[in-house]
Design a protein that fits this description.
The protein is mostly helical. The protein is built from one helix and no strands. The termini are far apart. The mean pLDDT is 88. Belongs to the BLOC1S1 family.
Length: 141
């Protein structure tokens, strides 16, 4: 009887060890599945964050290119405005120069008119004197 009890005890113990081994394997598989599920769940978030980061990088590069192009275009506009401003200043200088020349020409015209009138008056008096002298000479003869 003792031998049969020891035998039963050993059988039950072997059976329990076998069950524990099965449960240990199931627990390991379950923990592996849980770990894999957690990693997959985290990877989804990480993958989404990675895709968002890539999209942000692309948009940042596009924004940088756009800002660079805008800066170049603004520089060109500023250059055009500067050139236009210089041209307007030159036109103002030309207009001022033209007014100055016009004023000088009017002074010259007035001077010439006065000189012409004076010479005509002088010639008129000389002609009158000559005519008087000629008339007197004709009268004396």
């Amino acid at each position: 009887m003792l031998a049969s009890m020891v035998k039963d005890h050993n059988l039950r113990q072997a059976k329990r060890k076998q069950e524990q081994e099965v449960r240990r394997k199931e627990a390991i598989e379950a923990s592996n599945e849980l770990t894999q599920a957690l990693v997959d769940h985290l990877n989804v978030g990480v993958a989404q964050a990675y895709l968002n980061q890539k999209r942000l990088d692309v948009e940042a590069k596009q924004l940088h290119v756009g800002a660079t192009n805008f800066a170049k275009q603004t520089q060109q506009w500023l250059q055009l405005i500067d050139n236009f401003s210089s041209a307007l200043k030159e036109l103002g200088d030309v207009e001022n120069w033209a007014r100055s020349i016009e004023c000088d020409m009017q002074i010259i015209q007035q001077s010439l008119e006065l000189a012409y009138k004076a010479s005509r008056a002088t010639q008129g008096t000389q002609n009158a004197t000559t005519a008087v002298g000629t008339t007197e000479a004709n009268n004396t003869t």
